[in-house]
């Protein structure tokens, strides 16, 4: 947090002091590619099921784990693993495609408690990176390492969970003074995603670990080293109030763990939600152009009455689209509790709002649509000048986020008792009439299993363009047991007839990443890379699926298990 933010925060605290006080008590040889493509190995088919017609499977024979089969192994996803490894050679069961060269880096959760204290919400686990370096030969080197954030170091030093802002509380809870420290220090645990930013000076990419907040941590993907914390400055912020307040009066709070490339440039885009902390300043959402890790400029800035929680957004060839659902930050509550996830108010009766920003001019168009909530936008593209197609992984409310508590995730009864299905929805935005209309994506009124996906990934070459395939995760595939998890492929171009799913009992996959085969002529020619926890063997393996058929084509056992991994990317060399 920079000086201005601290000043702003102190001012807020001063303003809210009475309220705080009153709450105190309450509180692969010859042709390696050919070899690779030959699919004969028995293990590939053995216990795995790939469903050519998901819809049929889904409606007639649920992909259920026998009710008696324990899914204890699932809990390993939410148990700490302190083990760190550097360049550990892992062996794939089949030859690797020679074109698969690069570094798959993933971010996620590694430690759920420290000393006497434990986190309550799964999203608060200490950030732990995992990487797989592919050299185009049979060697793959695996590494895993915690991010040495200020939070991690302070916690290690103090032999407990140090007071830094978290999504939710810890047990035993922070005291009053510690809560103030949480507010001042902000969120420092970058456990959500990784991204590459260009460095125009060196011409080489710089990598960072990200969360839903404005700060980030620069990391080295060669050895997963933590370089330093970065609090990017915004130089051309327009002031809504007097200029002497330049940079103050705002608490730069929420941003996105999912930056997107700005088409036709080497820039990326993200957003920033700034909370007004002085009576005469107003809440502002800004669309930000990211030129490098640290250099950022404002594309557009607009005032909002309340600050919505947004996790991701969409970009077409010409526009950025932000979906603000009526899920607002309660500033008073934040000041009192210092727990963002406890201080978000959901208003089911209110409409959602789309902010459509023209990238060239910065013009902002506002369109309302029926109440809907989304964590992950899939993709969006322009159709002529008057229409945008936007795909979202939606939920009727943000309730499921609240269920992602450690005690719920670790208890089969509790975790099986909530609706864990997302619903992929396609919207057509008419820019002339300023209307939003939902377009059906399944020919059958009953959604295909693949339609229930979240954690969407696409072939990045189709980002901001017309595309057909989205891959993702579906939990609770039998609609009974949360840990029945499938990797799915949704076909958006032929009414879902190309939908596929892949799953096996007692195997828990996380979000995949799509790597295209070089010279690929079709969108889905490539592989999906993903860690899968084998609950029976209590170990994780890296799986390689053929993205066209969604069949398992290769895998490598890892020397240790990986707790829940949220997002990642493959950085080609
Ligand atoms: C298939 O499942 C059986 C029992 O569930 C197990 O013994 C066997 O090792 C599995 N085979 C593979 C290739 O995973
Ligand atoms: C694979 O390539 C890497 C990097 O060029 C090299 O260090 C390694 O020894 C190679 N492994 C084999 C088995 O050839
Ligand atoms: C990681 O690599 C960098 C150089 O790329 C080096 O400065 C640093 O010491 C290495 N860190 C570890 C932990 O090996
Ligand atoms: C993007 O970066 C590459 C490599 O640095 C450079 O050759 C290219 O001209 C840049 N493109 C734009 C649009 O700036
Ligand atoms: C799952 O079950 C719930 C009730 O138990 C039902 O409301 C819901 O529609 C079912 N979901 C699907 C996709 O069939
Ligand atoms: C998908 O189904 C809808 C409604 O059944 C139909 O109008 C449309 O032409 C179909 N599209 C394709 C590509 O088959
Ligand atoms: Fe995310």
Automatic annotation (TrEMBL):
GO terms for molecular function: beta-carotene 15,15'-dioxygenase activity; carotenoid dioxygenase activity; metal ion binding. Transmembrane segments: none annotated. Fe cation binds at residues 258, 311, 376, 567. It holds the Pfam family RPE65. Keywords: Iron, Metal-binding, Oxidoreductase, Signal. GO terms for biological process: carotene catabolic process; retinal metabolic process. The keyword Zinc does not apply. This is Uncharacterized protein. Residues 1-22 form the signal peptide. InterPro entries: Carotenoid_Oase. Its cofactor is Fe(2+). It comes from the Eukaryota. Belongs to the carotenoid oxygenase family. Binds 1 Fe(2+) ion per subunit.
């Amino acid at each position: 947090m920079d000086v201005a933010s601290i000043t702003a925060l102190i001012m807020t605290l001063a303003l809210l002091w009475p309220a705080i006080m009153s709450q105190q008590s309450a509180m692969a040889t010859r042709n390696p590619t050919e070899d690779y493509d030959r699919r004969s190995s028995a293990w590939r088919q053995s216990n795995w099921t790939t469903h050519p017609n998901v819809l049929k499977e889904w409606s007639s024979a649920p992909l259920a784990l026998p009710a008696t089969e324990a899914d204890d192994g699932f809990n390993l996803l939410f148990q700490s693993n302190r083990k760190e490894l550097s360049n550990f050679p892992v062996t794939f069961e089949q030859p690797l495609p020679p074109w698969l060269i690069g570094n798959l880096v993933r971010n996620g959760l590694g430690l759920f408690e420290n000393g006497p204290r434990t986190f309550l919400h799964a999203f608060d686990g200490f950030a732990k990176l995992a990487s797989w370096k592919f050299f185009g030969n049979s060697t793959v080197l695996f590494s895993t390492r915690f991010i040495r954030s200020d939070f991690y170091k302070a916690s290690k030093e103090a032999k407990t969970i140090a007071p830094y802002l978290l999504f939710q509380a810890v047990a035993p809870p922070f005291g009053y003074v510690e809560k103030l420290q949480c507010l001042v220090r902000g969120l420092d645990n970058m456990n959500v995603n990784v991204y590459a930013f260009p460095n125009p000076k060196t011409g080489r990419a710089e990598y960072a670990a990200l969360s839903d907040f404005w700060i980030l941590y620069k990391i080295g993907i060669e050895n997963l080293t933590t370089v330093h914390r970065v609090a990017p400055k915004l130089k051309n912020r327009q002031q809504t109030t007097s200029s002497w307040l330049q940079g103050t009066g705002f608490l730069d709070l929420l941003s996105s763990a999912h930056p997107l490339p700005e088409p036709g440039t080497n820039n990326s885009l993200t957003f920033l939600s700034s909370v007004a902390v002085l009576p005469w300043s107003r809440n502002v959402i800004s669309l930000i152009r990211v030129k490098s890790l640290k250099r950022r400029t404002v594309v557009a800035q607009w005032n909002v009455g309340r600050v919505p929680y947004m996790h991701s957004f969409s970009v077409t060839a010409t526009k950025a689209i932000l979906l603000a659902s009526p899920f607002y930050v309660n500033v008073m509550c934040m000041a009192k509790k210092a727990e963002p996830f406890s201080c978000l108010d959901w208003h089911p009766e209110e409409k959602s709002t789309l902010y459509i920003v023209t990238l060239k001019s910065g013009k902002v168009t506002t369109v309302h649509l029926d109440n809907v909530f989304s964590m992950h936008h899939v993709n969006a593209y322009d159709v002529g000048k008057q229409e945008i197609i936007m795909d979202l992984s939606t939920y009727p409310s943000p309730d499921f986020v609240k269920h992602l508590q450690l005690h719920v995730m670790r208890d089969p009864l509790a975790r099986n008792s909530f609706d864990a299905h997302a619903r992929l929805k396609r919207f057509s935005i008419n820019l002339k009439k300023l209307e939003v209309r939902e377009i059906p994506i399944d020919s059958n009124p009953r959604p295909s299993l693949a339609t229930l996906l979240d954690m969407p990934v696409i072939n990045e070459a189709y980002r901001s363009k017309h595309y057909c395939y989205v891959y993702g995760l579906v939990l609770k595939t039998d609609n009974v047991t949360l840990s029945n998890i499938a990797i799915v492929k949704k076909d958006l171009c032929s009414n879902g007839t190309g939908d596929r799913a892949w799953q096996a009992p007692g195997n828990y996959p996380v979000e995949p990443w799509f790597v295209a085969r070089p010279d690929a002529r079709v969108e889905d020619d490539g592989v999906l890379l993903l860690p899968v926890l084998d609950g029976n063997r209590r170990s994780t393996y890296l799986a390689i699926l053929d993205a066209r058929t969604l069949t398992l084509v290769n895998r490598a056992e890892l020397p240790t298990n990986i707790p829940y991994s949220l997002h990642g990317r493959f950085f080609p060399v």
